[in-house]
Amino acid sequence: MVQYSKIDRKKIKPKKSLGQHFLKNPRILKKIVSSINPKKDDNILEIGCGEGLLTELLAQSGAKIAAIEKDKELYEIAEERLKKYKNCKILKGDILKIDIDKLRNDYFSSRRIRVVGNIPYNISSQILFMMLEKRRLIEDIVFLIQKEMADRISAERGNSDYGYVSVAFAIFFKTSKIYNISGKSFFPPAKVESTLIHLIRLKQPKVKIDNEVEFLKFIKNCFSHRRKTIRNNIKMMLDNKKLEALEKQLSLSHNFNLSVRAEELDLFHFKKIYDIIKFQPG
């Protein structure tokens, strides 16, 4: 049986500097575990385990777990709570500084990992892009993040939330928003809603890319000024002659042009533009 709070609210105060908001509703914790659906053979990395409430529920499945906590007081509480679980290891550290490759190789025997956590709002973007970079090590991700960020990741073209983040994750992950959670479900109460989001790594990227870094940089340039057209956002990359040739080829062969904004194009449009630029002579 999980004891749902070992935190003395008077002694341990959530730290704003660490973006701490603790889930206080056991019903929601159980729903999150149900959504993760941990199995005995799973290798789970939990980011920001706090006092170890979610960690303990996951550990009861028999899955092998490494849980990371930066806060010394919470780390000690989590370590005490989980000491009876031989399948669980509590690590004190900053996820942005931990060598995930080494952790995977040493603790998870080089197997792909499932990454879960209630992610601090103040570093959610950094963590998400770290996961994007380390995607080859990952099977899937279940994160509780601010609703605004979840909307941006899952947005499709034509939506006001659609942007570079949406396209970058769409290349490598299948994304689904599971449900929203009120800020009142946290201690202290959060000012915004959170969303539980599930990212499943695709076996192959949605489009074939020879140089992923260059392609992602190109997409970022396309969204660099949201109110400007694609033409204006990429004109610094091409001389006038190449830009005119690109527009002509798009118009003749692909039935669209550069006078639209990036939010009006999907991943495959960006790939067509990129390929034409890449194979232009000179």
What descriptive keywords fit this protein?
alpha/beta, Rossmann fold, Helicase, Ruva Protein, domain 3, two-stranded antiparallel sheet, 11 helices, single chain, 2 domains, seven-stranded mixed β-sheet, about 280 residues, 9 strands
How does the SSE layout of this entry go?
Blueprint: E1 22-23, H1 26-36, E2 43-47, H2 53-59, E3 64-69, H3 72-82, E4 88-92, H4 100-107, E5 113-118, H5 124-133, E6 138-146, H6 147-154, H7 164-172, E7 173-181, E8 186-187, E9 194-201, H8 212-222, H9 230-234, H10 240-254, H11 267-278
Parallel strand pairs: 2-3, 2-5, 3-4, 5-6
Antiparallel strand pairs: 1-8, 6-9, 7-9
Helix pairs in contact: 1-2, 10-11
CATH H-level superfamily of the largest domain: Vaccinia Virus protein VP39
Number of strands: 9
> How far do the termini sit from each other?
68 Å
* Tally of individual helices: 11
Relative helix content? 25-40%
Average of pLDDT:
90
Low-confidence residue ranges: 6-10
Main structural class? alpha/beta
Helix and strand string, N-terminal first?
Answer: EHEHEHEHEHEHHEEEHHHH
CATH class bucket of the largest domain: Alpha Beta
Q: What fraction of residues sit in β-strands?
A: 15-25%
How is the biggest beta sheet arranged? 7 strands, mixed
Spatial sequence of strands, sheet with the most strands: 4-3-2-5-6-9-7
> What is the CATH topology assignment of the largest domain?
Rossmann fold
Query: What is the name of the CATH architecture of the largest domain?
Result: 3-Layer(aba) Sandwich
Shape label: elongated
- How many domains would you count in the coordinates? 2
Radius of gyration: 22 Å
